[in-house]
Amino acid sequence: MSRVVFVLVPGVHLLDLAGPAQVFGTATDLGLPYELGYVAERELVPSAQGLTLNARTEWPTTGPDDLVVVPGWRISPPHDGRAPGPEPLERLRAHHAAGGTVASVCAGALALGRAGLLDGRRCTTHHELQDELAARHPRATVVRDVLFTTDDRVVTSAGIASGIDLALHLLAVRHGPALAAQVARNMVVYARRNGDEPQASAMLRHRAHLDDVVHRVQDVIDARFTEPLSLARLAVGAGVSERTLTRLFTRATGGLTPLRYQQTLRLERAEHLIGQGSTVAAAAREVGFDDARMLRRLRARAL
Fold it and tell me: In angstroms, rounded to a whole number, what is the distance separating the alpha carbons of residues 80 and 109?
């Protein structure tokens, strides 16, 4: 039996906790021997979303096969006000020193840093906290804009939904990618992402604007980016001329034309497939290219 122990802090984000807990809970439903536990300095732990959680104040005995996870919490000045106290930090240090694995989601990396577990190691956190993590722990190597990192049994993730990716990765390492894929399918997760994938997808990076026409066109491209989509067809659907659509789209997305936006989505999806073991040719076909030459050119341009 392997234990997964979650260390809860007042203001804990529910998805930071529930995402990885669901992954290991689903693995248990599939017959893997995991036991989930929740510890805190007080029995009642208010979450950031208003739901109060019940936890144990006594730590279970853990061994090298066990995992201790620190989910993130709502950050408000002073940022350390809700961080785990001396006893949980000592427990984290002792567990790692005994050969166990520790992990964090989002602001949980600040707790690992305070425990001294990030010194000399690669780590990451939510993009809004990366500067603070680097400033507080200058001996750590903060890797920016990735989903998760692993370094000597210290695993850190970007936060919120990326805790699911972190947990699926740990399952894949221990039990193989097929089992992790089975858990992901059971959870209706769109895809099991690699750790070095960006925290914000192309669909999100180019949506920070207020142009309704462009958003409607992006909705079409997002849903059908593997298909041929002519500018004329997109313009008719948006109710504007081709010239107007190009002008609005370029201004709203910071310089991308509709075609370049579609190619960006194809490239991102292809990179994910290649990272999962697909060949360049197979990935090119999957995302809608007639052959692999265009994909190779786009990859070279991106590099």
Answer: 12
CATH 3.40.50.720: does it fit domain 202-302? no
Percent of the chain at pLDDT > 90 equals 66
Q: What is the 3-state secondary structure (H, E, C) of 199-261?
A: CCCHHHHCCCCCCHHHHHHHHHHHHHCCCCCCHHHHHHHHCCCHHHHHHHHHHHHCCCCHHHH
Active-site positions read 106
Classified as helix, coil or strand, 156 is strand
CATH number for the 2-186 domain, one of 3.40.50.880, 3.40.50.1440, 3.20.20.70, 3.30.230.10?
Answer: 3.40.50.880
Whole-model pTM: value is 0.71
Cis peptide before 78 (omega within 30 of 0): yes
Q: How far apart, in Å, are the Cα atoms of 260 and each of 181, 221, 234, 253?
A: 31, 11, 14, 10
Q: What is the pLDDT of residues 197-233, one digit of tens each?
A: 454 566 667 877 888 899 889 889 988 999 999 999 9
Per-domain boundaries in the chain: 2-186, 202-302
Digit-coded pLDDT (tens) for 3-33: 999 999 999 999 999 999 999 999 999 999 8
